[in-house]
């Protein structure tokens, strides 16, 4: 750590306010066509461009250490900057997973070279990262992955498939958890690799979801060659890296990451409009029942914000065990879930049918169809509940048929 | 409350807890349910000696806090009282004290309230109306040397035990508050029934009650900011008490899940039940998080205090009964008996849910704030 004095948060806030006003585009001037899924490549290019602006202005990576391109400042500085940035168009899509999950994991577990190259690359707006964790047959059993890498002289040969990676088509590197030893129990034979997404042998297929989004991808690896320095952490020590990655994922999903810039979601949507605007659009803003729903949503978000702060403080002070971050993950899903219901309740019939060409509140209906996304992405809420009951409350672990069994002897089932 | 308390706050919490544990264990709470006031006055005086009534009063008026953040210290007491479903007029006395301190004057009343010699309460609800403390229909009409008060207040906490009432009224000049002694001619208290076994309420009938000019609290027609402050303090205190109650209930329900075996294994080993405990633990931490934030905002008089208090009151108010009733379910048959302590907590939480604003009222208030701030933030 540098011994030079840290700029006081309020000074930093004022400097950020001034810089943002002079350099970042106002949100109201934002090109709304970037939200159209058909225009996704342009949206990612815009994200990189805006991140580059932050980098050039000296505001990229507020919480990341200076030696890897960040500013080495505190969470309070980060919060101040995020709050100040609210009126501006920000590169929000780079926050998750690139900065908050992947770069955070590399910072904790990667080699010096990986930290310099990948964190620096992301902060400069040159590179995006993606998580290659889930597999088509995997479900919630992440340690049961069957994508494999085999050593061949100086290189590793990767084969298998991953799925549910968000934005892989736009990414440059993926943190990929694979099996490297089949003769030991499942957690012991895993290794994490940094896979160049555009490497020969990587095929990406985009998945269309119920709401029309094609954000998620499926990847196929056919004899992809990886150099030895693509290993993150230790060979066969991949579970430790994945655990750290999951920690950062929970933290990001719960809204507590110290490594993001800006507030809000990466992609705007009519379904994200303020509830009072929706209520007004359907002529119900004065309905007391609708007001209760608007207030309930506001309360949930405030409570969520302060749960996150409490859990972060509890973790920092040792008052709560590490897995407590799962509580923020669970709460976030519940808040999203309830918002989706509330939007549907407010919109009423306008959520499900309306004039051709005027989809307006109809996006609320599509959002509702995709309501479970927040309870599945980043690990199912059932897994979060297991973690909370077993590792926060100390309740007995669920029975696992593969515990302490060499992975090559574990039954794999048919589907 | 926050995880990090100062050493003085920790000591204060420990002293409060020990006193409550010794003096009013749940067996005593049950006995008090058949008594006249639900608490003993000499007991309350001793609570006052522990500092429960001094925390919102500045040092120059003889009060003082443990941490220089008196409201946060008071929330510690409220939470500990919630954990034991304690009796006592903690909320009404402190609301009255905060009103008198904010308004100035009434020094001797402040002193005797602080000493626990006098019990004061806030008469703010009216029959047939919801949580509208700034819109009373009880009237104050000027006389030659004072005022005549007329009307009815209900849901008055500790009404029978109270020596004086802080009454919100509509004067010709606007919202006003008066301090009315219990023995004022024309004043009558009718006891109400209450779901809570020890916390009592009453109806206050004011039939042309004559009060002198000195009964005025603050300035005529200018009570709105005082009443706003009172409602924030009442709501956050009540939310802290409820959070304390939920904390204790979940604690003993989790212990029960480890101790109780069915089909040869503890209840705590069943995933269907574990998932419910995970939800409840998460909600409980959320309750503590929002109560702390609301308490700090009220203490610091920050601009978002009203919003955070409404969020706390609506969230804690409704989640508390959900959690406690789920704990009843997890206890099985024993949970629905009079002998089990669960219903004492459920009673307290249910009463708290409905007073000083229901969750629904707080949600509508939040919506008003959201909609009012639209033009500002956009």
TrEMBL record, chain A:
Residues 236-393 form the Acyl-CoA dehydrogenase/oxidase C-terminal domain. InterPro entries: Acyl-CoA_Oxase/DH_mid-dom (IPR006091), Acyl-CoA_Oxase/DH_mid-dom_sf (IPR046373), AcylCo_DH-like_C (IPR036250), AcylCo_DH/oxidase_C (IPR009075), AcylCoA_DH/ox_N (IPR013786), AcylCoA_DH/ox_N_sf (IPR037069), AcylCoA_DH/oxidase_NM_dom_sf (IPR009100), Mycobact_Acyl-CoA_DH (IPR052161). Keywords: FAD, Flavoprotein, Oxidoreductase. Residues 133-224 form the Acyl-CoA oxidase/dehydrogenase middle domain. Residues 11-125 form the Acyl-CoA dehydrogenase/oxidase N-terminal domain. Its cofactor is FAD. Belongs to the acyl-CoA dehydrogenase family. This is Acyl-CoA dehydrogenase family protein. It comes from Cryptosporangium minutisporangium.
From TrEMBL, chain B:
The keyword Flavoprotein applies. It comes from the Bacteria. SUPFAM superfamilies: Acyl-CoA dehydrogenase C-terminal domain-like, Acyl-CoA dehydrogenase NM domain-like. Residues 124-209 form the Acyl-CoA oxidase/dehydrogenase middle domain. Keywords: FAD, Flavoprotein, Oxidoreductase. Residues 239-368 form the Acyl-CoA dehydrogenase/oxidase C-terminal domain. Residues 6-106 form the Acyl-CoA dehydrogenase/oxidase N-terminal domain. The keyword Oxidoreductase applies. CDD domains: ACAD. Its cofactor is FAD. Belongs to the acyl-CoA dehydrogenase family. PANTHER family: ACYL-COA DEHYDROGENASE, ACYL-COA DEHYDROGENASE FADE28. This is Acyl-CoA dehydrogenase family protein.
């Amino acid at each position: 750590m540098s011994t030079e004095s840290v700029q006081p948060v309020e000074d930093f806030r004022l400097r950020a306010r001034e810089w943002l006003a002079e350099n970042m585009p106002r949100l109201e001037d934002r090109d709304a066509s970037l939200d159209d899924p058909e225009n996704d490549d342009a949206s990612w290019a815009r994200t990189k461009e805006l991140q580059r602006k932050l980098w050039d202005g000296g505001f990229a990576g507020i919480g990341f250490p200076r030696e890897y391109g960040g500013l080495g400042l505190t969470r309070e500085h980060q919060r101040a900057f995020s709050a100040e940035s609210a009126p501006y168009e920000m590169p929000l899509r780079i926050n998750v997973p690139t900065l908050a999950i992947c770069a955070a994991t590399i910072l904790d577990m990667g080699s010096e070279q990986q930290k310099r190259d990948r964190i620096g690359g992301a902060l400069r707006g040159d590179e995006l990262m993606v998580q290659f964790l889930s597999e088509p047959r995997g479900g919630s059993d992440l340690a049961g992955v069957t994508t494999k890498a085999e050593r061949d002289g100086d290189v590793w040969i990767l084969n298998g498939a991953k799925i549910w990676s968000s934005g892989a088509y736009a990414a440059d590197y993926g943190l990929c958890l694979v099996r490297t030893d089949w003769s030991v129990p499942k957690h012991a034979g895993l290794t994490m690799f940094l896979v160049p997404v555009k490497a020969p042998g990587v095929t990406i297929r985009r998945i269309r979801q119920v709401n029309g989004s094609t954000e998620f991808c499926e990847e196929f690896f056919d004899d992809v060659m990886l150099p030895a320095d693509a290993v993150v952490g230790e060979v066969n020590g991949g579970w430790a890296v994945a655990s750290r990655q999951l920690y950062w994922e929970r933290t990001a999903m719960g809204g507590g990451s110290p490594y993001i810039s800006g507030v809000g979601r990466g992609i705007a949507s009519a379904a994200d409009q303020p509830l009072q605007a929706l209520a007004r659009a359907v002529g119900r803003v004065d309905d007391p029942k609708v007001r209760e729903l608007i207030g309930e949503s506001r309360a949930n978000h405030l409570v969520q914000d302060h749960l996150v702060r409490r859990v972060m403080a509890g973790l920092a002070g040792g008052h709560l065990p590490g897995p407590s971050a799962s509580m923020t993950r669970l709460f976030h899903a519940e808040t999203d879930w309830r918002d989706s219901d509330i939007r549907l309740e407010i919109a009423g019939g306008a959520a499900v049918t309306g004039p051709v060409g005027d989809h307006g509140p109809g996006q609320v209906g599509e959002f509702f169809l995709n309501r479970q996304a927040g309870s599945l992405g980043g690990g199912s809420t059932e897994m979060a509940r297991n973690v909370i009951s077993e590792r926060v409350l100390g309740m007995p672990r669920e029975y696992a048929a593969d515990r302490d069994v060499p992975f090559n002897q574990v039954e794999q089932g048919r589907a | 409350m926050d995880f990090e308390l100062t050493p003085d706050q920790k000591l204060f919490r420990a002293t409060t807890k020990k006193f409550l544990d010794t003096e009013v264990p749940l067996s005593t709470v049950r006995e008090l349910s058949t008594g006249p006031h639900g608490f003993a006055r000499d007991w309350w005086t001793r609570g006052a000696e522990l500092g429960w009534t001094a925390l919102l009063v500045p040092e120059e008026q003889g009060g003082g806090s443990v941490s220089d953040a008196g409201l946060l210290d008071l929330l510690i007491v409220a939470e500990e009282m919630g954990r034991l479903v304690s009796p006592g007029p903690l909320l009404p006395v402190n609301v009255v004290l905060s009103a008198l301190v904010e308004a100035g004057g009434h020094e001797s009343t402040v002193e005797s309230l602080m000493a626990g010699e006098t019990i004061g309460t806030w008469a703010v609800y009216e029959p047939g109306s919801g949580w509208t403390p700034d819109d009373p229909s009880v009237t104050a009409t000027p006389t030659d040397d004072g005022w005549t008060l007329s009307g009815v207040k209900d849901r008055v906490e500790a009404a029978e035990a109270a020596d004086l009432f802080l009454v919100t009224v509509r004067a010709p000049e606007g919202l006003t508050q008066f301090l009315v002694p219990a023995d004022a001619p024309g004043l009558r208290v009718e006891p109400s029934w209450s779901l809570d076994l020890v916390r009592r309420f009453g109806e206050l009938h004011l039939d042309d009650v004559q009060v002198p000019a000195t009964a005025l609290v603050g300035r005529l027609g200018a009570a709105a900011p005082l009443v706003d402050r009172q409602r924030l303090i009442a709501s956050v205190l009540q939310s802290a008490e409820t959070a304390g109650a939920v904390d204790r209930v979940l604690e003993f329900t989790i212990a029960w899940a480890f101790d109780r075996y069915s089909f040869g294994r503890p209840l705590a080993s069943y995933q269907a039940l574990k998932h419910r405990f995970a939800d409840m633990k998460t909600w409980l931490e959320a309750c503590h998080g929002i109560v702390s934030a609301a308490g700090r905002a009220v203490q610091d008089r920050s601009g978002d205090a009203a919003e955070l208090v409404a969020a706390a009151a609506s969230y804690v108010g409704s989640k508390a009964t959900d959690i406690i009733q789920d704990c009843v379910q997890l206890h099985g048959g024993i949970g629905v008996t009079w002998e089990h302590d669960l219903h004492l907590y459920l009673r307290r939480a249910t009463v708290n849910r409905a007073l000083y604003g229901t969750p629904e009222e707080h949600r509508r208030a939040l919506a008003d704030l959201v909609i009012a701030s639209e033009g500002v933030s956009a």
